[in-house]
User: Fold this.
Amino acid sequence: MSAVRFLGRAAVVTMLGLAAACAGSSTRIPVGTLEPDKFLWERGTAALNEQKWFTAREFFRQLVDTYPQSIYRADAKLGIGDTYIGDGTAEGYVLAQNEFREFLSFYPTHRRADYAQFKLAMTYFYQMHGPERDQTETRDAIRELTAFTERYSTVERSALLPEAQQRLREARDRLSQSEYRVGFFYFRSRWYPGAIERFAAVLKNDPEFTNRDAVYYHLAESLVKIERPAEALVYYDKLIAEFEQSEYLEDAQQRSAELKASIATQIKKNEGKG
Assistant:
């Protein structure tokens, strides 16, 4: 290791040590404080609101570890998770997941259990990749958001439900868009059976997909290419019925009219032969 690199690492270690020392002194409970757990909670909350993640975490951690019977302990546990989310790092999200899962395990009936479940889901949501990349985090987000909506949309209705439903729709759209892109690649490659399989899977797994007009159109086009016009017509007509505005609407209307005319002509020919 070069001397420069060694000195650089030493400087980083020194800075981290100084930061920890400063934080330790700033989070110390003043002598004579009547409600030390409340003091820690209020200071931690203030630091959290100011996005001072490390300082807030120190206050909350001290409360959780030192005052197991405190009425603020459960909320402090959530606060620790929030500080890790605030860090915005992959490691921070994993640590946040641990905090929220532990909260749900220790306090399953707590008044803020819905918040813990929602934030757990969001640790995955924040890590979702674009539709062209791996969708593992998207699937995890869908799983946890689905768990939230299933539990907190009826008797235990949560104020967070509308946002959770919106995020769930966004996550499902991301996953469906990823699947659609694979189907579209097959379509462009003229491998129509593969395209049909992918497009049909998107509609089956996510019938409310926001961009399903594109799926309808390219599924119908693929069916036409392998000479299954009656099936294709169903999807052209679905597009026309469900979307007042779509970049595919005009073409779908034209294709639908052509197919209906062609099918009617074929029926007449068959009747004539009979």
About this structure: Residues 1-22 have pLDDT under 50 and may be disordered. The CA atoms of residues 117 and 261 lie 54 Å apart.
